[in-house]
Amino acid sequence: MSLNQIQEITSNTTEKRACQNARSYLIFLDYINLNKKEMKKTLKNALMTLALLAMPFAMQAQTKFHDVEANDAKGAVKSLTVSMMGQEQKTTFTQDGKMQQDGLKDAVYDDNGYIQSAKMEAQGMSVTINFKWEDGKVKTQTTNVMGQQMATTNVYNDKGEIIKQSIDMGGQAMSVEYSDYKYDDKGNWISRKASVMGQTMEAPRKIEYYE
């Protein structure tokens, strides 16, 4: 075999290998690009799925109200009926926890759904109520009736029970003490005793829940 033939064979072999390597490289690039596209598509789908899943939770967080907690209860409460001195007062709640009561209007909430103020129309009078919260509980409630202000401050024990309410009525102070709490299986009180000005009264409470 001549030198020229050897060189020709070697040259052809080198070219073939170069072509094969080039084809392999192009196939590899196509594979990489395809996988990039698939990865982008998969990532996009994953992000869209996460966004769709997050929307209901975001809406729930924005529409959840804490009026049940403002009434010293918790959970999926549908209504509360409190009896005191022979009179009953019923408060109902929507499924997202917003309070509904005859005469209640113009309720103002913060971004977390905690009531800050509201107006109550009763017996021809307009009453403005302001709330101050502390650790998820109502600390003070200020009521303004025809220019007269009454401030109620709640005192809680370690269990989260209201054991005392200090009431300031335009400089005149009084207090109500609570004891002997009884609870339902949801952890809400259904009976307690209230002591005011030397008299102790039973204060039962009926609770309805959403199923």
Q: End-to-end distance, in Å?
A: 96 Å
Strand order of the largest sheet: 3-2-1-12-11-10-9-8-7-6-5-4
Gyration radius over CA: 36 Å
Helix-strand makeup class: alpha+beta
Number of helices: 2
On the 0-100 scale, what is the average pLDDT? 78
Q: What overall geometry do the principal axes of the alpha carbons give?
A: globular
Binned, the helix content reads 25-40%
Q: Could you give the order of the helices and strands?
A: HHEEEEEEEEEEEE
In what range is the share of β-strand residues?
over 45%
Low-confidence stretches: 1-19, 46-63
| Number of DSSP E strands | 12
**Main pleated-sheet profile:** 12 strands, antiparallel
Description:
There is one protein chain. With about 210 residues, the protein is an alpha+beta fold. The protein has 2 helices and 12 strands; from the N terminus they run H-H-E-E-E-E-E-E-E-E-E-E-E-E. Helices cover about 30% and strands about 45% of the residues. The longest helix has about 60 residues, at about 5-65. The protein has a 12-stranded antiparallel beta sheet with strand order 3-2-1-12-11-10-9-8-7-6-5-4.
Give structural attributes.
single chain, 211 residues, globular, 46% strand, alpha+beta, disordered N terminus, twelve-stranded antiparallel β-sheet
Gist?
This protein is of the alpha+beta class and 211 residues long. It is built from two helices and twelve strands; from the N terminus they run ααββββββββββββ.
Write the layout of secondary structure elements.
Layout: H1 3-63, H2 67-70, E1 77-84, E2 87-93, E3 99-100, E4 104-109, E5 115-122, E6 125-134, E7 137-145, E8 148-156, E9 162-169, E10 172-183, E11 189-196, E12 199-209
Antiparallel strand pairs: 1-2, 1-12, 2-3, 4-5, 5-6, 6-7, 7-8, 8-9, 9-10, 10-11, 11-12
